[in-house]
Write a structure and sequence with these properties.
Strand content: 15-25%
Shape: globular
Number of strands: 10
Number of helices: 8
Radius of gyration: 23 Å
Strand order of the largest sheet: 1-10-9-8-2
Distance between the termini: 27 Å
Order of helices and strands: EHEEEHHEEEEEEHHHHH
Length: 303
């Protein structure tokens, strides 16, 4: 789980760091590795490849945490309220009650703000790579859309706190050295070992844009069924489970996620809006009839 860009904004109006320059990913440079889609594709065709955002895999964790704290605070103040009324049934309970309410308001406000990182927002924040117009469309957290030419984005492997890495797209100012906006791709990882996973995902996107849809089409096995509907609970579990790979620790965590995080994910999803691309974006993302490289969730294998 890594929430840079969600709980805190990426720094902008800054110069590229030396690390970003050293780890630049070039759109024309072929990497000698097998591409991987990392269960992150919503739909694809000859025109565009649409991916989920980096926060989608663990969506629900913040909601679960905030909801648990909210429940504890509510129970605590509820018990205090009852105790005050019972213990001071004749008089004197109003002042202590007001004190408890004032003490609790900052906590409730914090929880309210925290819940909005996931709940009462959008179910996901899709990214579209249009290979025909050579544009990248990014659904921002505030519901607006960033559209930038693929060839003008400075892509790089970016170092984050706690040894995390992710692939970022830097939107540059006309001077070519100042970062105006940053958007992350779907996959992130921990430590040097996960860099290969990130590069394999990057290579899938890069080849789609530079070499055509055929390779990606044959590699994508399952599409996320969220383009125009709410996620099914079982699909949410599978997507969260995929974040941890297939080691034994991940399987041990599966039960924990099902009991704890999954309810928060359901609440976060159902209280959020399904993102809708603006009409002008849809107008340039037209899919041809009988497209041989069309793939979406309707083509997923049966469970």
């Amino acid at each position: 789980m890594e929430y840079s860009g969600l709980t805190g904004k990426y720094p902008v109006d800054r110069r590229l760091t030396q690390q970003e320059r050293d780890d630049q990913l070039h759109q024309k440079q072929h990497l000698d590795m097998e591409p991987a889609y990392q269960l992150s594709v919503i739909r694809m065709n000859s025109t565009y490849l649409e991916l989920v955002d980096k926060y989608f895999g663990w969506k629900g964790f913040i909601t679960t945490f905030m909801g648990s704290v909210l429940l504890i605070i509510t129970v605590f103040f509820g018990a205090m309220f009852i105790d005050i009324i019972i213990g001071n049934s004749k008089s004197g309970w109003l002042s202590p009650l007001m004190m408890f309410l004032v003490m609790g308001l900052p906590g409730y406000f914090f929880l309210y703000k925290g819940a909005h990182y996931e709940a009462f927002a959008y179910t996901h924040y899709p990214i579209r790579f249009n290979r025909k117009t050579r544009m990248v469309h990014v659904f921002r957290l505030n519901g607006t859309v960033l559209s930038v030419p693929w060839d003008e984005v400075f892509f790089c492997m970016a170092a984050l706190p706690k040894r995390y890495w992710e692939i970022q797209g830097q939107v540059m100012a006309p001077d070519g050295v100042t970062v105006r906006e940053t958007f992350p791709l779907t996959v992130h990882g921990v430590g040097e070992g996960d860099k290969k996973v990130l590069l394999a995902f990057w290579e899938l996107v890069r080849r789609y844009m530079e070499e055509g849809p055929e390779d990606a089409y044959h590699r994508v096995g399952i599409c996320m069924d969220i383009a125009d509907k709410y996620e099914k609970v079982i699909n949410g579990f599978h997507r969260m489970h995929a974040e941890g790979g297939s080691n034994i620790i991940t399987y041990l965590m599966a039960a924990f996620m099902a009991i704890t995080i999954l309810p928060g994910r359901y609440i976060a999803m159902r209280t959020s809006k399904i993102p809708q691309w603006p009409q002008e974006i849809e107008a340039v993302n037209v899919v041809e009839p009988n497209d041989p490289y069309f793939r979406d969730a309707s083509m997923n294998p049966e469970d």
